Amino acid sequence: MLQTLTRIPVANYSNIKVRSGYSLKIDDTEIALFKVTSGEVYAVENRSPHPKGGVLSEGLVSGEYVYCPVYDWKISLKDGKVQAPDEGQVRTFKVELEEDIVFIIG
């Protein structure tokens, strides 16, 4: 069975500050939105994979990584993978930009 994808408008591109995280909620999922210095926008689940969690939208952004503000885990914004020596992964979401609107594809 073919699943239909939904494009959900979530932000104006021009309003997103570089290297800052923004929190938003779609249904029951909290998402962290980031614009990196290259201008790319990424969306990941807004919770560190550490058992005690951590709000990623409050983390430090460096390159295409965010650092968990609680445990300092380095997490790739591209694929959600925690970098060694730590282990884990966060869910990522496809992002599209059309004119000035950022969409999350779900």
Can you offer a commentary on this structure?
There is one protein chain. By secondary structure, the chain is mainly beta. 0% of the residues lie in helices and 42% in strands. It is built from no helices and nine strands. It is globular and about 40 Å long. The mean pLDDT is 93.
Quick summary:
This protein has strands at 7-12, 21-26, 29-35, 41-45, 60-62, 65-67, 74-76, 92-98, 101-105. The protein is mostly beta strands and 106 residues long.
* Overall form: globular
Instruction: Name the beta content range.
Output: 35-45%
In whole angstroms, the N-to-C terminal distance is 16 Å
Helix content: under 10%
Task: Specify the oligomeric state.
Answer: single chain
**Number of strand elements:** 9
Largest sheet, strands/sense/barrel: 6 strands, antiparallel
Average pLDDT figure: 93
Count the helices. How many? Answer: 0
* Rg over C-alpha atoms, rounded to the nearest angstrom: 13 Å
**Helix-strand topology string:** EEEEEEEEE
Q: Order of strands across the widest beta sheet?
A: 1-9-8-4-3-2
Low-confidence stretches: none
Structural class, please?
mainly beta
Layout of helices and strands, plus pairs?
Elements: E1 7-12, E2 21-26, E3 29-35, E4 41-45, E5 60-62, E6 65-67, E7 74-76, E8 92-98, E9 101-105
Antiparallel strand pairs: 1-9, 2-3, 3-4, 4-8, 5-6, 6-7, 8-9
Please name the defining characteristics of this protein.
mainly beta; globular
